[in-house]
Amino acid sequence: MIWNQELPPNAPESVRELAEEFSHLKLGYRGDLKFWENPVIYEMTDLLEEPEQTSEMKMQ
C-alpha cells in the first residue's frame, strides 16, 4: 500500500515530484509498528484535548 502525500491543488510540479517520491517511501500497512521489537509510541490525546497549549508554541 502506498499512502500518497496530500498537496494543495496549485502545488508546483517540482513539489509534486518530491511528494510522489516521498509517498513511495511510506510503503507498508496500518499497524506497521508490529515490525519493531520496541516501538516508540507517542500519546497525542492530551495535546489534542488542550488546544490552548498549542497557541503558546513558537517556531524557533
Query: Any idea how many domains?
Result: 1
Q: What does the overall shape look like?
A: flat
- Can you summarize the main beta sheet? none
What is the straight-line distance between the termini?
35 Å
Estimated structural class: mainly alpha
Structural write-up:
The radius of gyration is 16 Å and the shape is flat. The relative contact order is 0.13. It has helices spanning 13-25, 45-49, 51-54. The mean pLDDT is 72. With 60 residues, it is an all-alpha fold. The chain has one domain. The N and C termini lie far apart (35 Å).
Short characterization:
With about 60 residues, the chain is mainly alpha-helical. About 35% of the residues lie in helices and about 0% in strands. The longest helix has 13 residues, at about 15-25.
What are the defining features of this structure?
37% helix, flat, 3 helices, 60 residues, mainly alpha
Topology overview:
Elements: H1 13-25, H2 45-49, H3 51-54
